[in-house]
Amino acid sequence: MCLNFQSFSVPARLAVLIPAHNEAATIDGIVRAAKEHLGGDVVVIDDASTDGTAQIARSAGATVLPLSCNLGAWGATQAGIRYALKANYQQVMTMDADGQHLPEYLPLLLTTLVSGEADVVIGACTERGSRARQLAWGYFRKLTGLGIEDLTSGFRAYNKAAMRVLAAPEATLLDYQDVGVLLLLRYARLRIQEIPVPMRERDHGGSRVFPSWLVVGKYMLQTSLLCLAKVGMNGKRRVAMQR
């Protein structure tokens, strides 16, 4: 895909949120590339790293939010969203710190968001992942009725209405930025759009979301219960939201 955003104007109140836990090997390049390709403010939520992630991110030009205890990927992301609301940012974009998300595609997602076509834009890559992940996606799509192809991508853009939904206490109960988050957004009647993007394998280490099959099993059980609870409401429940 040829990307040309020479005439693209970056909104003044935009923040790129990067949750990071022990990502000293990659965070410098990710922060610098995000600033190069998009501009705006880059905020690294340091999820209680024990390496030099925070110092390196700060040196690369990011604002660093240090967390005193490990909250996990979604908890750190939500902390960043709450910070962004308090600082009056109008849009935020989220991306991983492990090198899977390509910063050159940030403008593509943001262009769709600021055009008003959607409240949430997801950078989707359905080709990635194992057959097991593909089967899990299919299972949860059928269970929830969500018309989303890539349910677990953390490469996203949110407008202020979506930020308010995801900053709510109800969202704090979630562990991941996937099915539960998407259900909250759907019940808030927000528009979600996917944009196909390529992704890379992570540069270093393993997944912090699914480090073992035990964690995968726990995730499948918890998410299934969450989906059944939400689907059982037949859409009657509404998330308190101020647009």
TrEMBL record:
Domain called Glycosyltransferase 2-like: residue spans: 16-140
CDD domains from the UniProt entry: DPM_DPG-synthase_like (cd04179)
This enzyme's EC code(s): 2.4.1.83
InterPro entries linked to this entry: Glyco_trans_2-like, Glycosyltransferase_2, Nucleotide-diphossugar_trans
Keyword Metal-binding among record annotations: no
Pfam families per the UniProt record, alphabetical: Glycos_transf_2
Gene Ontology molecular-function annotations: dolichyl-phosphate beta-D-mannosyltransferase activity
KW S-adenosyl-L-methionine (keyword) present: no
Record protein name field: Glycosyl transferase, family 2
